[in-house]
Specification:
Elements: H1 26-31, E1 41-44, E2 48-52, E3 62-66, H2 78-99, E4 103-107, E5 123-128, H3 135-139, H4 150-167
Antiparallel strand pairs: 1-2, 2-3, 3-5, 4-5
Bound molecules: zinc ion.
Zinc ion binds at residues 25, 27-28, 69, 120.
Length: 168
């Protein structure tokens, strides 16, 4: 596989994430500012947190999840439903100006047969690009290729979020 100049391999970075943190619920840990996962949060509101996905499909692959540890979409309150979609709209704007994607995948996996690896309900938002590297190439050789240092992603998105929230 050809690796472009700007691609980096996570195992070779001085890397914030490392292995999956050994915590009972990674999203509750982010909510509670656990220092093992504090570098994943990009923003929060009164009801929701926005974080980087620990193993992103693409740079800017985010999770939007309620502060409450719930596991089913139907447990969301009306306020949380509204807030989720408000945040999706805000983050589509942010990701569009940060990465210029051609599209998005947005959605939920619920239950073990869906591929969900985190029980705590969360909505994925994944920016998609034309001619992007496929998921099979990404995981070939057991090494996932990330096209941006997650520290860079984090700083960029935190800054954009602060700006967006100040303007709203
Ligand atoms: Zn949780």
């Amino acid at each position: 596989m050809k690796i472009e100049q700007n691609l980096v391999i996570p195992g070779k970075l001085d890397y914030v994430r490392g292995d999956k943190p050994d915590v009972p619920c990674i999203l509750c840990s982010i909510r509670d500012n656990d220092e093992r996962v504090v570098r994943l949060e990009v923003g929060r509101t009164e009801l929701m947190v926005i974080s980087l996905n620990l193993f992103p499909y693409n740079p800017g692959h985010l999770l939007i999840f309620p502060l409450r540890h719930i596991t089913d979409l139907r447990e969301l309150s009306s306020d949380e439903v509204l807030e989720t979609h408000r945040l999706l709209q805000v983050w589509m704007d942010i990701l569009e100006s940060s990465y210029g994607p051609r599209g998005f995948n947005i959605g939920y996996n619920m239950g073990v047969t869906s591929g969900a690896s985190i029980e705590h309900l969360h909505c994925h938002i994944v920016p998609r690009h034309r001619n992007e590297i496929g998921v099979l190439e990404m995981v070939s050789g057991g090494t996932r290729v990330i096209v941006e240092d997650p520290n860079v992603t984090l700083d960029k998105l935190r800054k954009a979020w602060r700006t967006a929230e100040n303007e709203s």
